[in-house]
Structures are given as C-alpha cells and as structure tokens.
Design a protein that fits this description.
It is globular and about 55 Å long. The longest helix is centred in the first third of the chain and has 22 residues. The N and C termini lie far apart (about 55 Å). A hairpin with a 3-residue loop joins strand 18 and strand 19. By secondary structure, the protein is mainly β.
C-alpha cells in the first residue's frame, strides 16, 4: 500500500508539473514553434489557411502540420534592436512571412502573411515598411501561466506578442478569438497571454555561418555548401527529434545527402563542430 501511495503521489506531482509547464509555454530561444492562445478550451493556434490565403485561429492540427509551424529568430535586419521575424514554409506556397498587410490600420490590425522572406531594410534605421517586425514581451500571469492583472511577471520566457509598423509601436495581441476561424487580430487594449510551444530548437554556432548554403526545399538530394573548416558532422532530424540522416564531414566544404528515403515534410539540418552547432529548417517535397 505504501508503494502504491508513493507511486500515485509521484504521478500526481509529475502530472501537475507537466500541466504547469504546458500552461507556461513561453519563448525559450530561437526555434520552430506553434503559437497559441492561453486559457481557452481548447486553445487555438495561429494557422495558415491555404484555401483563403489568410492567417486564422484554428484548433491544433494532427502531428506537426506545417501550417501551424513558425520559425522565430531575430529579424535579419531589425528596424530597431530586439525585434524578430516569424516565418513558415508551406508546401505549394514556399516561404511565408507573418506580417500585417494593412499598414494604415494601426493599432487595430489583422495579421496575414506574404510570400517570401522578411523584407531587408537598413538595420536599426527605424524602417518598419516590411510590416513584419515583431517583439516579445512579458505580461502578468497567475501561478498557472494565465493572464492575471494582479499576478507576477514570469521570471523566464516571454508571453506577449507585439508588432511594430510604420504607424506605431503599440499593437499587441489583445483580441481573444471567439471561435476557430477568427482572424488573428492585434489592438491597443489589454495585453493577453500568448503561448509559444517549442517544437524544435535552432542553435547558433561558435563558428562562421555566413557562407553556409543549404538547399531548400529539397527533393532527392540535400546540398550544403560553404561549410566551415571545423564542421565535423551534419545530421538531419525530424521535428520530433529523431535523427534520420548523419554524415561525417572530414574537412569538406561541400556535401550532398541522398534524401529519397525521407517522407515529405519539415526537417532540421544540424551542422556540428567542437565549438557549437548551427541548425537550419528545410522542407522535403
């Protein structure tokens, strides 16, 4: 009986810990994320509607559906320090960038997407004309990670999302959807909690990655060029973390991997050295 009680207690502790971690799904670093509401039953996710070419709230799709996967990294040319880009890669569309399409409606805006990568501007020029410069912030929450104006600001992670465009800097996620299918709207009202569910981390290397080229999307072959001299291994992982390909580099600056056996979908290519690693998201068609 004592052993059973201990097992039950351990199970309850682990369950409560897991629920708390899930509730507090905060941004933890560069990576591929799902972005959802907080406190709804069920929570809804930022989703690309390929039929209407819009961004909508939807229930979580089965598996790691690419229509709900977003790569979040520092903006390639931030208009001011600390801004980030949010991009995806959709079969049939290619690269997509989360943004607002109506620059005149600040601060009440509707998110959409544009084809291709974020706009390159003069770094730190206060040029927000790409309409794709986001900012993570914190808002007050309770012990479960849900919004509470009297709660404490979490000690780690970020749980609020702002957008800066040419009309201002204070649009933020503050319009909780009423149902699946609603557009993703920002305004200047209360700062509501938004959740960042990490799917796959992207690590930055302690070596020069500026010359590395990774073919994307890929069909039968994955080509990597411009590898640094100290890169010693290249691995390919599914978004669930399973290693599906691996090869030793041995000083090569270029290599080709046979990807014919891989199923269509999204993968992470990881290039490793003794000093660190560099990861890149690819799509296998």
């Amino acid at each position: 009986m004592k052993k059973i009680t201990l097992k039950i207690s351990a199970f309850l502790v682990l369950t409560m810990f897991a629920m708390q971690m899930k509730a507090q799904a905060n941004f933890t670093g560069d990576g591929v994320y799902k972005i959802s509401t907080s406190g709804l039953t069920p929570n809804l996710y930022v989703t690309v509607n390929t039929s209407s070419s819009t961004i909508e709230w939807a229930e979580e799709l089965p598996g790691d559906d690419e229509k709900q996967l977003w790569t979040i990294v520092p903006h390639r040319t931030p208009a001011s320090p600390g801004l980030m880009e949010i991009t995806g890669n959709i079969t049939g569309l290619g690269a997509v960038t989360l943004c607002t399409l109506d620059d005149s409606a600040h601060p009440s805006i509707t998110l959409g997407f544009k084809l291709g990568n974020p706009k390159t501007v003069v770094e730190n020029s206060e040029d927000y004309s790409g309409l794709d410069q986001f900012q993570r912030r914190k808002t007050k929450v309770d012990e479960n990670g849900l919004y509470d104006k009297n709660g404490a600001v979490p000690a780690n992670g970020n749980n609020a999302l702002f957008l800066r465009n040419t009309q201002g800097t204070d649009s933020r996620y503050g319009v909780i959807p009423a149902a699946a299918g609603d557009f993703v709207k920002f305004d200047k009202g209360g700062i509501d909690v938004i959740q960042f569910h990490l799917v796959a981390p992207l690590s930055t290397a302690d070596f020069d990655t500026s010359s590395i080229f990774v073919s994307n999307p890929v069909n039968d072959q994955l080509t990597i060029k411009g590898l640094a001299n100290n890169v010693n291994q290249v691995s390919v992982y599914s978004l669930l973390g399973k290693q599906v390909l691996e090869t030793k580099v041995k000083g090569k600056s270029e290599l080709t991997l046979d990807t014919r056996a891989l199923s269509s979908g999204m993968y992470i290519v990881k290039m490793s050295s003794a000093k660190g690693s560099f990861s890149k998201k690819i799509v296998k068609q």
